[in-house]
Amino acid sequence: MTRRWIAITGGDAAYFDLMRGCVASIRDKPEGRDVALGVLDCGLHAEQRGWLSRHGAQLVAPRWDFEFPGRAGCSEAFKALTARPFLPDYFPGYDTYLWLDADCWVQHWFAVDLFRRGAVRQAIAVAPEIHRAFRHYRHAWPEFSAVNGAAFREAFGAALADRLVRYPLINAGVFAIRAGSPAWGAWATVLDEALQRSTNMTDQIALNVAVYERGLAAEALPSTCNWPVHHALPAWDTGRGLFVEPSLPHDPLGILHMTIYTKTVPSFDIVQIGGPDDGTIRPMTVRYVPPGEDRSRPRTPEAFRV
């Protein structure tokens, strides 16, 4: 594809270590060396801004795009959530916009390509949280339905919550939308409505309502394009040297998403696939690691410095 596009992330100083991995995971690939990068600066330090600028990122400080009752209790970082339906306003002039949460990193470029292709096919390209390995479709369903059901209920009421909590949750942490798509306005409208009642996961809940209830056309990509690590730890393919889905046929993961507690855990016990160590367990970090570095060394936020 030759269309002009931009990859965007954002957050505050506390998220910089993860954001750094997100940006580096794009830049360390041949396809990503010259990609336009944007960052929503929600309170970064000067040295952090400098690092991002040196890696070719355009930094923009977002505004409050909505008036809502709970705004006074929200941090500056919350703007990275409410600004997303307005990305063409912050970074004008691109044909397609790919958003990645700061706690995501790109392992394999196929996911980036699929998001861009999906944005051409439908109003928005997303990856619903549905996979045969995910824990919340088995023993963790009560936990999942309680947390997400509460968020739906607070913003849109019990009837809608009881209905939509049974649908595959659309993860708003990675998405692609073309510049002229109706998705921008549709998402903004529902998000504005939801923010008048709740700030609990409201950006993601609003996107789900826009798709499942308001008719927003979405291209649903496989979960390998946005893998929420807390739902299922990946396996490690020793031959290919990359993370793969833990279930057969062990397809590669394109984007790993350090959801919830996985952001701060230094390492996990990861099943090895292939070779003489097939089936064994090895402690490994699932955070971004520069090419050639040892994944067996635990990685903590302190290990990623400017």
UniProtKB/TrEMBL annotation:
<protein>
    <recommendedName>
        <fullName>Glycosyl transferase</fullName>
    </recommendedName>
</protein>
<dbReference type="InterPro" id="IPR029044">
    <property type="entry name" value="Nucleotide-diphossugar_trans"/>
</dbReference>
